[in-house]
Design goal:
The protein has 2 helices and 3 strands, in the order H-H-E-E-E. With 134 residues, it is α+β, with helices and mostly antiparallel strands. It has one domain. It starts with a helix and ends in an 8-residue tail after the last strand.
């Protein structure tokens, strides 16, 4: 009798284990995704602000943002930053983008829908650069 109850419990645990694992660990994965999103979004806006002051996306600005992200444990080689190389005077629009691979967002890919995506932040800001002033 006791052995039979034990076997039923083991079988029930095996059947329920994927649900339990998903319930325990998926919230922490989603929280990590949310925190990464907030950090990258903040860096994208900082990138846009610094670019607006210079009138373009300079290598120094790119290096500063990449160093900051690297200090926050992001893989530097996977960060893609784009923006204008030519100077845009005050009043013109500057568009900069920051892209980083998101990775898997689900613990189990039960239905084949857990495709990898990128964090993508296009930011458009007005240039504050005045020619002749430093």
């Amino acid at each position: 009798m006791c052995r039979r109850f034990f076997m039923k419990s083991v079988i029930a645990l095996l059947i329920l284990s994927p649900i339990l694992l998903y319930t325990w660990f998926q919230p922490s994965v989603e929280r990590t995704i949310q925190y990464r999103d907030q950090l990258l979004q903040k860096q994208a806006y900082e990138l846009a602000h610094l670019s607006s002051l210079e009138g373009r996306l300079t290598p120094e600005i790119q290096e500063a943002v990449l160093s900051k992200l690297e200090s926050l444990y992001f893989n530097r080689s996977k960060v893609k930053i784009t923006g204008p190389n030519t100077t845009i005077n005050r009043g013109g629009l500057i568009t900069v983008t920051l892209r980083y691979p998101q990775g898997r967002t689900e613990i189990f890919d039960l239905f084949g829908r857990a495709a990898e995506r990128d964090y993508f932040y296009p930011v458009q800001i007005m240039s504050e650069y005045v020619d002749g002033q430093s």
